[in-house]
Amino acid sequence: MAYSPLQQVRYGYQPKLPGVLREDIRKMTPMKGAATESASDHSEIRERFPHTYGMPMVRFEQGENPDVPEKRNIGVVLSGGQAPGGHNVIAGLYDALASANPESKLYGFIGGPSGILKDDCRELTGAVIDEYRNTGGFDIIGSGRTKLESESDFAQCAKVCNARSICALVIIGGDDSNTNAAMLAEYFVRNKSGIQVIGVPKTIDGDLKNEHIEASFGFDTATKTYAELIGNIQRDANSSRKYWHFIKLMGRSASHICLECALLTRPTMALISEEVEAKKQTLGDIVSQITDCVVSRGRQGMHFGIVLVPEGLIEFIPEMKTLISRLNDLLAQDGGEISGIEDPLQRCTKVATLLPKASGSLFSTLPQEIQMQLLLDRDPHGNVQVSRIETEKLLIQMVADRLRHLRQEGIYTGPFSSQHHFFGYEGRCAFPSNFDADYCYSLGYTAFLLIASGLTGYISSVTGLSKPADKWNAGGVPITMMMNMEKRHGSQKSVIRKALVELDGKPFGVFAASRDAWASGNEFLYPGAIQYFGPPEVCDQPSVTLTLEQES
To answer: Is 377 part of the annotated catalytic residue set?
Structure first.
């Protein structure tokens, strides 16, 4: 098979490890801290996880660990959407496993969690791993969104693992996948299955993080990829000076991607969903804000600009959030009354009559295509499919309508030409940045050490990420420590709490202090492509968000 020169060279890149992990793998021992509590709802989470609740934080240090060289069979699964660096998690896991005992085996389950249920797997040998080192994508074993959440699912997992003498499962996924990992770990302990479960924090959205999980892998690469594209569009806009570009960016539950891309590129405007919610802004307020910016720049002869829109914005607008909640309840209770109506207009009209008055009125004012998008089937977690709601087009249409009224009133006569974009898949499988290549490899290596230390129900943790890699720390966090109770599918569920943009945090503060200047002038930055070769200050730097968060 022929490979591009970059791909060929990346195969040979040796990811950097934290200093402690560079020692003899048999001389790394877990240092345990005090018992932990869940993020909130302590009694409810403890009741659901009586066997794995309250476990201590773990940090690896040098010391004898006689259990490391034991021969083991370990299973690994990729769960949910792709994120750059997943292959390096598996490579780090494999290298640690093989270093501890060359007779150990690693099995990759095909197509996500369903591969465990179907007992569909392949052995991941050194030759297989070498074909995927430092590359993007999840194609080594594929991924999927099947949820492991029922007793029968857990029993089937135990059956498959026992048949293959698999002593531990590593689940690489986001908050929902790691919630399921915690449930599986609890089941295995309760039933004395002897099978460990370790999670790895993955999501480009950046919403799986806390004090001890400083970053979810893939975020760094994805945001740098999107920032390159945004910079390219900004250069084009500054050249032609005739288009307003509305760019929707992935991030359904938090605006970390949008904020990071704004810090990297300095767009004309960037909407932050968490701020919209905190200020209780309406859809009309947001449209007015954008329109005012268009008018202000237009009067200076600048009929162009860039607006970054978070994918999940629609769910953070209070009136829209209420509408979506009402729609979720309505569709969950639907006995065929709505789904049986084939004509789109009639279906939307019927829905408007079944909603409470305020929500029904708001629903009726939306363009029909947006109404239909809000009625699409929910995802496996019960969420509206915001990636299929064309918020950027909705904003363009509403701004154009507002400008039309201003022209009719003689208030503004300038032009408004627009382009719309959605950057999502472009970043999910990119070649991982050096940061993500190193971080992911370290996460996989640490996952093995958690297994070798007899732990279960933990998520792999590497911290100190704003420092050079040799200064990083490695350890583990009990998954239950990150949990709270949330309403899902109409009932309360124990889930990992999503990390939202903190409006009192330094990253948002830097953005908020700069955005007025960005809106009134041409402050665009053009970050260019991810660099893999060169000085560390160019090639190995973490995200701006992470750097600002960890500044003293």
So the answer is: no
